[in-house]
Amino acid sequence: MATRYLQKLCLILMICLAQTGFAKETAEELLIVRPDGSWPPHEMFVEGELTGFHIELIQKVADAIPLKVTFESLPWNRAIEMIKKGDADAITYMGKTSEREAFGYFYEGNVLSKATVGFIIEKKYIDDIHFSGELSSLMPYSIGTVLGFSYQERFDEMTSLNKVSIAENEENLLKMLLAGRMDMAIGHVGDIGYHAKRIGVEDEVVFLKPYLTEGREHYLVFGKAKSHGALAKTFSDAMKAFKSTSEYLGLQQKYGLDD
Question: What is the pTM of this model?
Fold first, then answer.
């Protein structure tokens, strides 16, 4: 069965290469930018080396095409600007919004992972801060966010909320929450939970229920400024094929993921 999957992958890749005609482009090294810091288990630094589910997944698909890729870690707003201006080829960990579709290609096959997003508070305020499920119920509180991050379009566009956008990543956001810089923070449940456990504060914070969103998709997005439509489609087809293999299942198991 594994042989059949590999044959299917090779066939799809051959067809894509023949149809898109970017053979010259594939010989070049592509720059992929990503949010600075660690976002375990998807993107993280281990003993100074960048690794994680997203990183390995992208590298394996790129190797199969074949494509040479290099990753650069940057503050999120700067990474976005590089994609907009054509200074980078692709960006990881990007949620889809109508605004972002103007400068990037969001192909279904290039979904890297899905995440649950929620609001986190210090546990000592559990009787004082509440979330009914309606965003309007959060108007009395200051809400910390990561600079440039999109969490949900309705939340992103709601100007009546008191959003405090000062953190470069979710680890910094968690520390700012504990320092009293905001009433609550919004973030990825898995990532913030990991950081809370790592720095020994998991008993000091709690996520409010209900969560804001579950199953939010994060993409590998290729930039329109560099006319990467064909490349984005080819990568999408190759990733779809890879996701049908036992190797992909093994990668999920390695990082404790099931979707």
Answer: 0.81
